[in-house]
Amino acid sequence: MSKSSEHKDGSGNDEIMDDDDRESSDLCQDNGPQNDELSQADSGYDLVKAPNMVPNVFIPYAKRAKRMDMKRLQKTVFDILTNQNEKETTERDPKESELPEVTGKVMFSKVYHELPDKLPQKDAQNLSFALAFAALLHTANDKTLLIEETADLSDIIVSQDKKLC
Question: What residue spans carry the Basic and acidic residues bias annotation (predicted)?
Fold first, then answer.
């Protein structure tokens, strides 16, 4: 059954179509009132008003990666937390097995403000809040420190976790 023999010979058998006829006939059909509604929607008269545009906000970010000695930063953070000076760490007896602990509660803002003075100049220039916070998290994990928030969530309190020691 070929398409050409059935349609062109006038046999009246219009229902037999191949895929090409079906696609073109669907495009040409008039859908009545649905077609009118579609054309109104396409015209743009019933569209929703565009939302207000948010202005672009400039957010400064580092365009070049900063280099930081994270082990030194973590050690410095821990030294500040334990109130140790560089002299105390060098004068301590190496045979002494007691590890220093954080005594009392220390605010992270205090640690962050003391860090640039205790780091080498190059590291102090590259220091950011994110790097200092990451160093605090690593130190807290390694030394089993407890991190708590203040009541107004403006700072972090760091102390020794006695439960995990």
Answer: 1-11
**Comparing C-alpha atoms, which of 144, 135, 140, 136 is closest to residue 163?**
144
Tell me the residue type at 152: D
- Phi, psi (rounded to 5 degrees) for 156: -120, 140
pLDDT in tens, the chain (165 residues): 545 444 555 555 556 655 555 555 555 555 555 555 556 556 666 778 888 888 888 888 777 777 889 999 999 999 999 986 544 545 555 545 466 788 789 999 999 999 999 999 999 999 999 999 999 999 999 999 999 999 999 999 999 887 765
Nearest to 102 by CA among 159, 164, 163, 165: 159
Domain shared by 31 and 76, yes or no: no
Selection from 114, 162, 161 nearest residue 135 by Cα: 114
